[in-house]
Amino acid sequence: MHIDCSRIVELLRHPDSVAGDLFEAFTAGGLIYGMGEAYPSLITPSSCVLNSAETAAITADLALIWGFYRTWNDLYRASLAGEEPRWIADLCEYGLRPEEVQAQRITLAAGLEPRFCRVDYIAIGATRAIAEVQWKSGGVGLFFGIHDICAGVASATAARAGDLVQGLRALILRCGNSEPVAINAVRSVWLRGEHYLRRICDHQGMRYIVFDRREGMRRIVERSGNVMVTDGGKLLRIDFLYAQELLPALTPPMIVRLARAAADGRLWIETPINYVYRQKWGMALPFMPAYAHLFDARLRALFGAVVLVHPRTIDLSPLADGAPEGIARQLCSIRTLDDLAHLSTAARRMLVLKCGAGIGAYYSQGRGVLRLNGSRSAAQKTLAFVKERLAQGEPWMIQRYVDVTYPLDVCPPWALHALQPIDAHARFMVYATVDPAGSPQMIGGLGNFSSDWKVSGRSARIDEHGRIVGAAFNDMRWVGGEE
After folding, report:
1. Do the beta carbons of residue 286 and residue 298 sit within 8 Å?
2. Is residue 65 part of a domain?
């Protein structure tokens, strides 16, 4: 799927000197993934700018997305009741231990829905396309800090930035008393960024406690019906628990107790303990004839076409819509996974295979995102791997590859005056919270740009061809209307 680059989000270029200012501020703020001493990624002196129409369109998208997951959970609930096919519940519960299934069903029965998310767009503008929805986004402190520094270092523009910290703070305040206790236990690589957010919250009078998730079993306990945390020799009641990074470090019985506490209203867990919000396979539901009527056509346009892969037979006709006639005929002729290797190279380049599970080795960090654009023998090896995973019951899906790059000036952190243009793939990371009336609202966002099509947060380096590779981040701003 090719998108006209002239009709997508505007990139506002700042003076060259901003690059050095950004690097110094990122490093001073401890906005470093992992254990290095200096900010490691590419720098871009730029901002993403949305106009009022784009902002309004994204706000409408957010309502669609929340509604999509609500319908997906309705189907899960109906499957458990025997009113829909059992395979839906089986995929919703794939890979979960018995206690995790129990916790998920408690959460489902209570009707708990997330109040915070990150939507990753591939394109914003006349055409909008979504790669995925990150209900369990890691690194909120790191990304919020990068956003704040980008917005502050180059602030003299007509466009204005959002306020990510204030948006999250307002959400936390609605989840507890006047002095809520918020907890975020994370993987060690995120800790330095989370301490940025902790310092900001401390300055604003809110207790935001961060620690390595490996301390979770020791520091989070249940006492007299309340979920508590040990901090500074004190035992404090938790009001808000940002839990998705924490769950793998907890014992299964504790996960059940947390789910019950949340269902009873004794604390708020973000994201609620429902692994559907980690999964991707449900993005195929709006394209299935049996369920298409449950979903808005605008949602299908955002997802671009998604097909759930079955071990025995597959139908790629949803991916053929809008494709060149010859490629469309090839896609419609596919009957099995093995057939994909025999597509033309042009047809295989249009496809992305993704793990749709919410648990396991391949559901996150891009490990289960694969393309078939190499040789036929390479494609066959990739397909053999996917077939092995399918045989274990793991859900996989196929999406159409969105081919769009952005001209972006970047420099590596070791040569801040050596800005050079690259053609960058992008993820536009839109953060949203649910307001008191229950409507999702955008609170801010970042652009994430990379020379790699997967668009990860990789550190800057020089590749074997002498080219600068890595990832760069900038902030998202608005012009016109209200953010």
Report:
1. no
2. no
